[in-house]
Amino acid sequence: MTPLTAELPTIGASEGPAGTYRLFAAGSNAGLADHERTFGPLPVHGVDVHFIDVLEAAGLTGRGGAAFAAWRKIAATEDARTGTLISAKPVVIGNGAEGEPLSFKDKTLLAHAPHLVIDGLLTAARAVSGTQLYIYTTAVNIPAVEAALAERHDGRRIHIVEAPGTFISGEASAVVNGIADGIGLPLDNRRRLSESGLKGRPTLVLNVETLAHIALIARYGSAWFRTTGSERDPGTRLVSVSGHGGEQILEVAGDSGLGQVLANATIDPSTVQAVLIGGYHGRWVRPLDYRLSPTGQASNTVRPGAGVIHVLTDSQCGLEATAQILSYLADESAMQCGPCMFGLPAMARVLNAIAYGGGDPQLVRELDRLSKLVTGRGACHHPDGTAQLVSSALETFSADVAAHLAGSCTRTRGRTA
Amino acid sequence: MHKNEGADGMNGTLHIDWTRCDGRGLCAELLPTVLDRDDWGYPLAKRAHKSDRSNVMIGPADAEAAREAVHLCPKLALSFSVQQFGSGR
Amino acid sequence: MDNALWAFGRVSGFISLALFTGTVLLGILTRSGRPLLSVPRFSITLIHRNLALLATVFLFLHVGSLMLDSYAKLNVIDVVVPFVGAYKPFWQGLGTVALDLVAAIVVTSLLRHRLGQRTFRALHWFSYAMWPIALAHSIGNGTNGTSKWFFLLALVSVAAVVGALIWRVSSNFLETAKARQGGLS
Which chain C residues are Cβ-neighbours of B39 within 8 angstroms? Predict the structure, then answer.
């Protein structure tokens, strides 16, 4: 266990941004000049495999949804590289696919702070001696990334690959498959990507926001990273706030209170019926006294996932909203795996029936049965995430379920089924 | 991790490649105590280790049947390895 | 001796064709994913495979005995290269084509795990070509003596295979078809 003061010897020359305004400190549409003026140069030549210890000390977790400790992934890739007889040259991929419709933090980051993402990619690559670098993102983000790469001399090795705008395109094996074959569908994973990914090489896939944080940690160190957030959830994260009539990106401290975040977003808590945290594979919560942290008890903590915070107002029905999401998720199945291909549409039909129609109590049992049926059976976690959303909806909107089965709805308009 | 469960031999893991599986049901016939079929014919592990029903634990008594299932699967969707169960991923 | 070889050559040919007919029917049944009465699916698969191998054995006997028979004038080249034979070159050539297809199908099936599903499937589709070619060969190459019962056998075979093909393309062919109909939204 490395001490919290672990630092690179060449770092510490300048102080990092104070407070939670970090990733966009260089301003909007920051070009290379603004970027270097604000953050200073990237001390890339001081980065080697020991940077992994710095990341461990920083406690950075992935910002793509799974919240896996970033240092562990990088260490696994490095281990895979050195574990083979002839050192296999790793591939490092910045994942900007952002298939989650409620998330827009990655596209905002790529538009306004692409140099931080590129810095992070170069840093991660140096830590694992990676030789092939990719940024995988949707068409709308590519011009900004291309422009940023064109400004730099060290961006030559980075290839930009276009991602399809599908929900599952951001899944790690789908990213690798997308770059390899242009087919952005998940693969059956018998081996971890860190051991064998793109072209059989050790492959490291990191969310673009994670890379941006890495770029700052490389400059200012792990102690600086921990000056905001908490012990269990250090640093900051971007959140995409929506559902209240507007869309906002906020950079918030780790382990923030949900109520505080909504207040920062100038959302009146009295208009909030419930909040969907994490995205379409996330969790509905109410009331608002939850902390946003990857670890903690479910009764007072909710996992931020990809940082989606979607507000449900009093005039909306939580079951209808979830039923619509579920129909979307069923349509977005890769259609490769039976339980997902057939199970998700079946779940959508049942939940839509509960939300919009019949009052048959069997429907709830059937939905529960189908959720359990699809969990753990598929090449990726699409069915699992979907089942998780459904079960959180049934729990959080249990009063609505009872009302719908009795032929009414709890929302303020009082619509009858 | 225990290498031998019982005097007969090793535990094994049957991995289901869902991207190939078409729910034809031969594996469920050969391993009736391990696999059921769901509403659409796909194999359903009766016991799940940490809700993972893609890597199914196979006891030593079922190892031969598991190998037969791997061999006969019409979609080559199965693979069998010994002592991988619970090795952590 | 020659007569015996000639007779054996023809009989083994008929047996091979009959076994291949059964193989095709069981192959279609295998694809449906259905059991047959009390015979489980994995047994259907195994019987299909074993019947194919048995049919192949009789095919070798058919070709081997005719190569030894002076009347048939069959040599090694004719066995692999079609339409260059001395006796009824066209009809015998069809037999060669069928044999070549059988070789490709059987080898890729036995090596399915090594060659992968795509190669196996691509070659296996040729079964639908192999069977009618083999049947045509047996009708065209045969002599008149036994034509009545052979004609009956051929008719029954054609009826069975055509019936199976109609079943093959029907909407409820797959055992799982009904259950999966509501699936794709």
Answer: 179
Chain B contact for A339, CB < 8 A?
yes
Give SS3 for C69.
coil
B12: left (phi over 0), alpha (psi -120 to 50) or beta: beta
Domain boundaries, chain C: 2-181
Copy the structure tokens of residue A189: 């994973």
Q: What is the pLDDT of residues A91-120, one digit of tens each?
A: 999 999 999 999 999 999 999 999 999 999
A362 CB-side CA count, 13 A: 2
Reported ipTM: the value is 0.86
- Which amino acid makes up residue A14? S
**Which CATH number do you get for residue A329?**
1.20.1440.230
Which among A33, A316, A67, A229 is positioned nearest to A147, based on CA atoms? Answer: A33
What are the two backbone dihedrals, phi and then psi, of residue A203, each rounded to the nearest 5 degrees? Answer: -125, 130
Instruction: Identify whether the C-beta of residue A142 lies closer than 8 Å to the C-beta of residue A160.
Output: yes
Which residue has tokens 């079960």?
A: A391
Pair (A299, A331) in one structural domain:
no
pLDDT in tens, A238-297: 999 999 878 999 999 999 999 999 999 999 999 999 999 999 999 999 877 999 999 999
| Residue A373 touches partner B, C-beta closer than 8 Å | yes
Q: Are residues A136 and A36 in the same domain?
A: yes
Q: Give CA–CA dist A134/A6, Å, rounded.
A: 29
Q: Which of B19, B41, B54 sits opposite A377 (nearest CB)?
A: B54
Query: Tokens 């909107």 appear where?
Result: A397
Optimal mutation site among B17, B22, B26, interface C, most CBs of chain C within 10 A? B26
Contact A43/A8 with Cβ under 8 angstroms? yes
The structure's pTM equals: 0.90
Read off the DSSP letter of residue A15. P
Residue B37: partners with Cβ closer than 8 Å, 6 or more residues away: B23, B25, B28, B43, B44
Residue A270 sits in which domain range?
236-313
Distance from CA of B23 to the nearest CA of A (A): 7
**Taking the mean position of all CA atoms in its chain, how far away is CA C45?**
16
Choose one of A289, A313, A337: the last residue of a domain: A313
Q: Are A194 and A187 in contact (CB under 8 A)?
A: no
The distance from CA C180 to its chain's CA centroid, rounded to whole angstroms, is 32
Through-space distance between the first and last CA atoms of chain A, rounded to whole angstroms: 58
Type of residue at C104: A
Which among C123, C96, C94 has a CA at the least distance from the CA of C107?
Answer: C123
* Minimal-distance CA residue of chain C relative to B23: C176
Is cis: bond before A234, omega within 30 of 0? no
What's the gap in Å between the CA of B63 and the closest CA on chain A?
A: 20
Residue C39: DSSP 8-state: B
Nearest one of C67, C65, C51, C48 to C17, comparing CA atoms: C51
Cβ A149 vs Cβ A115: under 8 Å: no
